[in-house]
Amino acid sequence: MLARREAKETGEVQELSTGSDVLLEMLKQQNVELIFGYPGGAVLPLYDAVYRQSFNNILVRHEQGAVHAAEGYAKATGKTGVVFVTSGPGATNAVTGIADAMLDSIPLVVFTGQVGCDAIGKDAFQEVDILSMTAPITKQNYQVHDVNSLPATIVEAFTVAISGRPGPVVIDLPKDVASGLPDDFESKQLNVWKKQPVQQKRVVDEGMMLKIREALFKAKKPLILAGGGVIAANAIPELRRFAHRFDLPVVSTLISLGVMPDTDSLFLGMGGMHGSYQANMAFYECDFLLNIGSRFDDRLATNASKFAPHACVAHIDIDDSELGKVITTEFSVAADARDALQWLLTNTEKRPKEEHNMWLQQLNDWEKLHPKHYEEEMGSIKPQAVIEEVGKLTNNDATIVTDVGQHQMWVAQHYPFKRPHQIITSGGLGTMGFGLPAAIGAKLAVPEKEVVLFVGDGGIQMTVEELDVIREYDLNIKIVILNNKTLGMVRQWQDLFYEKRRSQTIFNGQPDFIKLAQAYGIKSLKLPLLHWRETLADVFAKKESAVVEADIPAFEQVYPMIAPGQPNQAMMGVD
Amino acid sequence: MHEILICKMKNKVGVLNRFTGLLTRRNINIESASINSTPDNKAVVAKFKIRIAESHEREHLKRVISKQIDVLSAEWCDPEKNKESDHTLLSDIEKY
Ligand SMILES: Cc1ncc(C[n+]2csc(CCOP(=O)(O)OP(=O)(O)O)c2C)c(N)n1
């Protein structure tokens, strides 16, 4: 309800802005063009303002979808994603997505509705203590008790979300604050908040950088591990220039795929549990490892104490709590990846181009020994082949979204990524159900790009309701269901480590995914065994959404694989 | 080993909640604590007596705490070298 007041002198009825109007005004000032959300009792004032101001809200079908969509949007652009959910169940439904964003350092501002200030703590209808629940999975969270402090809180939240190491921020908004009347918020006054607080930049520690430079030049087998921090810092050109100037091979993580083009001779592929043979052997063999913006996650450094055993390790990260957390490093620098790389470029200018021919030859030999490959099988469609075919059909330039499981790893191995922000996947939390809503967010963020979602038959059922959003907004997203009729990745672990006791991982029947997509008004088809490539090409030739189901072998394994706790060079499936 | 962690934090609702969560998650028990606001009431200084074995874990924890938006500073002080603060902590407790 819009607040109205009779002006004392004239008796004229004035329409007043509420806290919610102020909030939307602030979002506009933060260049927020759209939000992802779902209404409810506690956010009635907020959605009333959305209605009155015709603010662009993408109405998802489940709050988890809202957060994943905002993550997809943020990942595709580097901008902050914004979410509105109601109190209680709306807020708790958002929790998985918030945790996902925390682990993958994705900037989000999530507004959760809350019961009125007077009712807080009284077990009011749909009241939960979302601040306590989200404390460990947010960079910061706020509950606003005074409508007049809303603008400052919002500006701070956006600054916190995007600055340093990005991450999610929650603003809990009691209903009476959302509908409250601010003292005197003329737009002139709101302008004050346009001035962002100056972000404190870390100064690059020159002494440490000099040592890194020295170690680098001494190294015979140097290696760069470039993580998500390089993408977050917009340091791709610097990384590529630096690698090429000194002939430095580069390994990526799952979420940083695209830091180097797949075709670059210096790029060894993704490292870690399902990484390439040469990348993992390079970890084992290198004598100097420069990690820029990766957190040595246990899916990458599968055995921390045996990781890079012959290397002097240097670690550059914007978040100093990552330094020395997992791997003992000789040199560590808390700095923005771009600043550090720029320092290295500037301070190595006079150095002649370095060559590491022997080392590169060795890496090359490893790649030849165990190139990425899969066995073609008569009478079946191989998931790896489908992924490679999609690469060809999209000129290797599509924005690729995945869900979680085997298909995710096959995509990481077989789609030839070439640019940053190209892969959108749940890395740290490994959240099944992430893919479909994230693809929606990505498509809305970069409509000019082809957006392709690869998803398993398990994961699609976790957020399948979001197909309705694709229909409603007529988004051109290609959805490829790689159907192995099992919870493939868990089944793979059971086969390898639990003597094939396939407990609860084989679906006893499935919905008809083709009919399901049709029920949502989306074109769908199953790839025929014969001429599936032609069928796929037809699908990609059209500028409309499609669900494509590929029946793939049920018991295909993702290889190489490092068993958990084993060192990186102990890869299975490469003999 | 017992350690004393001294943190200066913003004087606002919820800072301790976040802080203790970081300890709980790492299975660290707080054995005693004292908290006081600064004279201008803008900040609080909190001292915690906790047990933490590894020195690298100490450094990591300090950094994790320091990066919290509402934490202004966090420092370890060795109870052996700083009997006074340990004593202050304990004497604070004895009052109650
Ligand atoms: C929300 C959630 N629940 C459970 C898991 C554990 N898990 C990881 S992969 C996987 C199987 C996924 O199966 P599917 O979606 O069919 O993909 P596939 O591995 O077969 O490609 C499961 C259950 C998870 N990652 N996320």
UniProtKB/TrEMBL annotation, chain A:
Keyword Flavoprotein: yes
Transferase as UniProt keyword: yes
SUPFAM superfamilies named in the record: DHS-like NAD/FAD-binding domain, Thiamin diphosphate-binding fold (THDP-binding)
Entries under Pfam families matching the protein: TPP_enzyme_C (PF02775), TPP_enzyme_M (PF00205), TPP_enzyme_N (PF02776)
Cofactor: Mg(2+); thiamine diphosphate
GO cellular component: acetolactate synthase complex
Catalytic reaction list: 2 pyruvate + H(+) = (2S)-2-acetolactate + CO2
Pathway as given in its UniProt record: Amino-acid biosynthesis; L-valine biosynthesis; L-valine from pyruvate: step 1/4; Amino-acid biosynthesis; L-isoleucine biosynthesis; L-isoleucine from 2-oxobutanoate: step 1/4
InterPro entries from the UniProt entry: Acetolactate_synth_lsu, AHAS_TPP, DHS-like_NAD/FAD-binding_dom, THDP-binding, Thiamin_PyroP_enz_cen_dom, Thiamin_PyroP_enz_TPP-bd_dom, TPP-bd_CS, TPP_enz
Domain of life the protein comes from: Bacteria
Its EC number(s): 2.2.1.6
Residue intervals of the Thiamine pyrophosphate enzyme TPP-binding domain: 403-549
Keywords: Amino-acid biosynthesis, Branched-chain amino acid biosynthesis, FAD, Flavoprotein, Magnesium, Metal-binding, Thiamine pyrophosphate, Transferase
Coiled-coil boundaries: none
Domain Thiamine pyrophosphate enzyme N-terminal TPP-binding residues, every copy: 18-133
Cofactor notes: Binds 1 Mg(2+) ion per subunit. Binds 1 thiamine pyrophosphate per subunit.
Start and end residues of each Thiamine pyrophosphate enzyme central domain: 211-344
UniProt record similarity statement: Belongs to the TPP enzyme family.
Protein name, per record: Acetolactate synthase
Gene source species: Liquorilactobacillus aquaticus DSM 21051
